[in-house]
Amino acid sequence: TMAPERLGGHRGDARSDQYSFAATMWWLFYDEFPYLGRTVEQLTAAIAMGGPLEIGEDPIPGTPARVRQVLEKGLAIEPTERYPDMSAFVLALKEAPDWAANRRRQALRVTAMAALVTLIVGLPISMLVRRASVIREPAGAPASKSSEKISSVLLLVEQEQFEEAERQWLSWRDAREVAGLATHEQSVKVSAAFLSAAKSKQAEDPKLALSLAAQALEIASAARTILRNRGEPTNPADDLIDKSKSLMGELE
Q1: pTM for this one?
Q2: Which pairs with CB-CB distance under 8 Å and at least 24 residues apart come from 191-194?
């Protein structure tokens, strides 16, 4: 999610990255990107105006009010009104009152945040617009190479090579979205794989399990948005979202 100053053609800095981080954290907690638009122009206008901030149908319950305040500061239109750097922003999230009272819960939450950083900084505006657009597969689009790539991602998850699996998944997804090709069917498969891995690590490594569950939640949420916009049933994605949130709740 590009910060307003970068949309205006100005050079970004750490505060611009903070804006991108805050936008995706908003998506994680409130089930919707903070600003919506059916076209790049509409979305750019909404970002430039600074609101209103959107709340989705299925926000994570129990999110402290202080967290919203931190995210709103990170989403300030003027860079000078945001936190001075990413460290200060993350520290403010860590110190949200309801989390600070439980250090284990706090640590696991922040681990989940860190797991999402690679998905956040520099996220192109086109990836926001797709949440409000119908992405359809062109007739006759080649499927074999795409299937091979997803099979590779799933195998890497099974082999517990999670970083490489994430790298290949993001590369595949970004390329598809730039080309205007659908990703929802494969997203459901990859989300399920990360969720299964999270469950397998629940007892052995709860921090890793929470990170994997957060990844599964992000992927399934994107798939659900595409399914909604296509007018198709969202049940597969809904089930993964519910299970991911439930597991994250257990780990906290």
Answers
A1: 0.51
A2: 191/215, 191/216, 191/217, 191/219, 191/220, 191/223, 191/237, 191/240, 191/244, 192/216, 192/240, 193/153, 193/154, 193/157, 193/158, 193/165, 194/157, 194/162, 194/219
